Amino acid sequence: MSKIKRALISVSDKAGIVDFAKELTNMGVEILSTGGTSKALKEGGVAVKDVSEHTGFPEMMDGRLKTLHPMVHGGLLWRRDNDKDRQEVEANGIKSIDMVVVNLYPFEKTVSNPDVEFDNAIENIDIGGPTMLRAASKNFKDVTVVVDPEDYSKVLKEMKSADGQTSYETRYYLARKVFSHTARYDTLISNYLNREAEPENIFQPTLNLSFQRISSLRYGENPHMKAAVYRDSLNRGLSIVDAKILQGKEMSFNNYLDSSAAVDLIKEFREPAAVIVKHNNPCGAAANANLSIAYKNAFEIDPISAFGGVISFNRIVDEATAKEILNLFCEIIIAPGFDQAALEVLGQKPNIRLLELDVSKDITGYDMRKIQGGLLVQERDTGMIEDLKTLKVASKRQPTDDEYSAMAFAWRICKHMKSNAIIYASKDMALGIGCGQTSRVDSAKLAAGKAANCNISLKGSAVASDAFFPARDSIDVIAAAGATAIIQPGGSIKDKDTIAACDEHNIAMVFTEMRHFRH
């Protein structure tokens, strides 16, 4: 590439542009510009030639038509090493444009306003900008294109050290950045227009996604697998990848998975609560006005599984809670905050990752899972029953108020357990957790066995099942464990057998008619 002699600058974000343009002019670069950018540069003392003067054609249609002209795009697209291109541009009086500095109309900011008018959104769709960016990027062998103000200093530094030139590697890097940028811009526009056209259709014919890599990870689920973490650039809700890391090592692939599961679960609670997650499954959950007690109760449900787990709170962690945690090896603690005394206590174990995250924010977007050759997309499971007393009581015996409270707690937890899921609970803590089994009766036995191993009595507890019971065998196991109430979806062809078993054991049972499969 030869020395940069002419640059076209047209930016919406004018941060740093005057200083950048001044440096270019100091190196002998002629500046072309348009509209508001031209005005800003001139006011900043930069010598500017208006694009309309360069093209011999005026800006029109309130600025809709400014740079869409052969004098601009010919200057960008002609191949400097192609004799035919050279002859054509010379024959038509087209002058080279060696650099484009463009960032686009603020469409994203415009449509983020819930009261934005449709016509205003349309006017903030940039046409000339993306066209110049794409043209310059296609011809990156000969043209330097800058879309991100963060790259101004990099470009200037290189030009100063290379007699006004940039390297092939830099131009290639900048071009790749442009195409990612314009792809995201088009995604925003497409998603907005589809949503406006069909607001009732949550699954549009084309699913456009935009994710930006934050960093590579040491490895994936296993050391032989490479991995990276990306940010959903369109997300406006709760984001685990944007949590503030106050202490500890870098997050791993599995850390992110378990942290996401822990945040999902803690959001079920309005009252102060603590949850512990291991391998994407709850292994402890409890609520209490005293956060340290909530944590202690959650931990005592299954101390063995809690080892190496992820802990999540929905209140600021205090010193007493931190001291309780200090006795456990855990990977991560997630909370809205940590008071200074808690930070000092947990600082004794500097490898524990402390994540500050406002878990009160809503979780937005879809649940998406990649499969071979495709993608499964569904709504997030936000289904919950606020008042269990409105449910159908299938058994002869009505539940007591305490049983309703215990069933409500259990139902919130089983929603976040891998199927098949059975959980025994009291009104404020889990007591026995069985999940991920291929038969429901095995989950019932596993949950009861875990409670017995920890000397936890299940007498008078309530049980939640994420799906219906296909046979009465699970009911017999639950009754033998001491539970007195069951909440389950119902809907099995064997419901009569299940109800009869509950009546035999004097167990109260309600049907939710809502399932919480989690595969």
Describe the protein's architecture and organization.
- By secondary structure, the chain is of the alpha/beta class.
- It has three domains: 6-197, Methylglyoxal synthase-like domain (Rossmann fold, 3-Layer(aba) Sandwich); 242-356, AICAR transformylase, duplication domain (Cytidine Deaminase, domain 2, 3-Layer(aba) Sandwich), CATH 3.40.140; 388-511, Cytidine Deaminase, domain 2, CATH 3.40.140.20.
- The protein has 19 helices and 21 strands.
- It has a six-stranded mixed β-sheet with strand order 8-13-12-11-9-10, sandwiched between helices. It has a six-stranded mixed β-sheet with strand order 16-21-20-19-17-18. Strands 3-2-1-4-5 form a five-stranded parallel β-sheet, sandwiched between helices.
- 38% of the residues are buried.
- The mean pLDDT is 91.
Helix- and strand-based class? alpha/beta
The residue fraction in helices comes out at 25-40%
Evaluate the radius of gyration: 31 Å
The biggest beta sheet, please?
Answer: 6 strands, mixed
CATH fold topology of the largest domain:
Rossmann fold
Shape: elongated
Mean pLDDT equals 91
Can you tell me the CATH superfamily of the largest domain? Answer: Methylglyoxal synthase-like domain
**CATH class term of the largest domain:** Alpha Beta
Total helical segments = 19
Any idea how many domains?
A: 3
Strand content: 15-25%
The total beta strand count reads 21
Low-confidence stretches: none
- Could you tell me how far the N terminus lies from the C terminus, measured between alpha carbons in angstroms? 55 Å
Sequence of strands across the biggest β-sheet: 8-13-12-11-9-10
CATH architecture classification of the largest domain: 3-Layer(aba) Sandwich
